[in-house]
C-alpha cells in the first residue's frame, strides 16, 4: 500500500546549507580532539579504539530490504528500487573509553549496507557501502559546532579517568532523568553524562538526528523496532550493577534463538523554516511523520565475540560520509565531523594489526 504524504517535500538545493568561514578551523580542532582521545586510550592499552562509541554491544550480520511500492518522493537514492542487500550492524555506547555498563550513556547503531550502486560521495571508500550512523535520541546534544567542540574537549579531559566517579555521577543522573521522564520530559545532556535509562539496548529506537540528502529531497533517518520481540524489550530494565558487560551479554543471549526485525524510516523535510538543515532540533512529526522505506532482519547468530570485535570494531569504519552522493550529509555538525571520522579511522588502521577496510559480504571475516 502506497504511503500518502500530506505536505510536499522540499527539493534539495546546494544553497540549503550555510557554511561559516571558520568551519575548516573548527573541523581541524574537532579532529585533533578526537585523535587525542584515541591517543589516551591507546597509551593505556596498546590497542587503538574509537574516540567515541568505543564499546560495542552487538556485532551483527543482517539483511536490508528496500520496500516495494514507495511513492516517488520516498523512492530516492538507495531506496529508488526495491531490492535486498547484506548489511552489518554495530550497537554501541557513546564514550571513548570502555566503561562498566552501570555508566549508562546514550546508545548507538551504525548500519553498513553493502554493494550499493550509484555515484559516491567525495572521499568515500572505494567500495560500495552506504553507512547510517544513529543514536537513541532525536536531538543532537550540541546546538552548534563550537558547542560540540567544547563538549568534546570535556570528554577528552575525562577519558580513561575517574571511572568510579563516573559511576556515581551516572547513578545520580539516572535518578534525575527518570523523574523527568515520569513528567513526560527528557534531557539529552543528562543522558549524555550518564543518565540514560538502564534498558535493553535491543528495544531502543535510533535516530540519525541530523539531515542528509535524500535524492531530490532532504530527510532524517531512523531505525525502530518492528518485530514483536524487539517491541517487548522497549523500556525493559536491565540490572547493570554486577555485570560490566550486561548490554553485550543481553544482546548475545537474545540472538541465540531470536530473529530481530527493524524498520528503517525516512522523515522528509517539508518546510525549511520549521525544519532547518543547519539546526539540531527534532523535526515536527505532525508536519512530516517518519515513514518506513526499508526493513532490516537479523537472524539467530552469535551477537558478540572477540573475533567479531576484531573484524568489526577494529576492521571497519562507519561514517555518514561513506556512501552515495544521493545521501550527502547536510548541516554544520555533519560537515564538521567528516575530518574527525577520517582521522579516527586512520589512527586505528595504522596502529592495530587489523587494517580498516570495507566488507563485501556477510559473514564479513
From TrEMBL:
One of its GO terms (molecular function) is heme binding. It comes from the Bacteria. InterPro entries: Catalase_sf (IPR020835). This is Catalase. The lineage of its organism: Bacteria, Pseudomonadati, Pseudomonadota, Alphaproteobacteria, Hyphomicrobiales.
Amino acid at each position: 500500500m502506497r504511503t500518502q504524504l500530506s505536505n510536499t517535500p522540499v527539493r534539495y538545493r546546494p544553497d540549503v546549507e550555510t557554511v561559516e568561514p571558520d568551519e575548516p578551523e573548527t573541523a581541524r580542532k574537532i579532529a585533533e580532539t578526537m585523535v587525542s582521545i584515541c591517543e589516551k586510550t591507546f597509551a593505556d592499552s596498546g590497542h587503538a579504539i574509537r574516540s567515541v562509541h568505543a564499546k560495542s554491544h552487538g556485532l551483527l550480520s543482517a539483511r536490508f530490504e528496500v520496500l516495494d511500492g514507495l511513492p516517488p518522493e520516498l523512492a530516492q537514492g538507495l531506496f529508488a528500487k526495491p531490492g535486498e542487500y547484506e548489511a552489518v550492524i554495530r550497537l554501541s555506547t557513546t564514550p571513548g573509553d570502555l566503561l562498566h555498563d552501570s555508566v549508562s550513556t546514550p546508545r548507538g547503531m551504525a548500519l553498513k549496507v553493502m554493494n550499493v550502486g550509484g555515484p559516491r560521495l567525495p572521499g568515500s571508500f572505494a567500495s560500495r557501502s552506504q553507512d547510517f550512523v544513529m543514536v537513541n535520541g532525536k536531538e543532537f546534544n550540541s546546538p552548534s559546532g563550537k558547542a560540540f567542540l567544547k563538549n568534546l574537549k570535556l570528554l577528552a579531559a575525562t577519558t580513561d579517568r575517574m571511572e568510579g566517579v563516573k559511576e556515581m555521577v551516572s547513578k545520580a543522573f539516572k535518578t534525575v532523568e527518570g523523574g523527568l521522564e515520569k513528567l513526560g520530559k527528557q534531557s539529552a545532556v543528562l543522558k549524555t553524562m550518564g543518565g540514560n535509562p538502564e534498558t535493553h539496548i535491543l528495544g531502543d529506537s535510533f535516530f540519525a538526528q541530523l539531515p542528509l540528502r535524500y535524492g531530490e529531497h532532504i530527510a532524517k533517518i531512523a531505525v525502530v523496532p518492528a518485530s514483536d520481540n524487539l517491541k517487548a524489550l522497549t523500556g525493559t530494565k536491565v540490572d547493570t550493577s554486577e555485570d560490566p558487560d550486561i548490554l553485550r551479554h543481553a544482546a548475545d543471549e537474545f540472538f541465540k534463538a531470536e530473529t530481530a526485525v527493524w524498520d528503517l524510516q525516512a522523515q522528509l523535510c517539508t518546510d525549511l523554516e520549521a525544519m532547518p538543515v543547519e539546526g539540531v532540533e527534532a523535526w515536527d512529526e505532525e508536519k512530516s511523520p517518519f515513514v518506513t522505506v526499508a526493513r532490516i532482519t537479523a537472524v539467530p547468530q552469535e551477537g558478540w565475540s572477540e573475533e567479531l570485535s576484531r573484524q568489526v570494531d577494529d576492521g571497519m569504519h562507519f561514517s555518514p560520509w561513506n556512501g552515495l552522493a544521493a545521501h550527502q550529509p547536510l548541516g554544520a555538525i555533519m560537515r564538521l565531523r567528516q575530518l574527525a571520522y577520517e582521522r579516527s579511522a586512520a589512527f586505528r588502521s595504522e596502529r592495530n594489526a587489523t587494517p580498516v577496510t570495507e566488507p563485501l559480504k556477510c559473514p564479513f571475516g
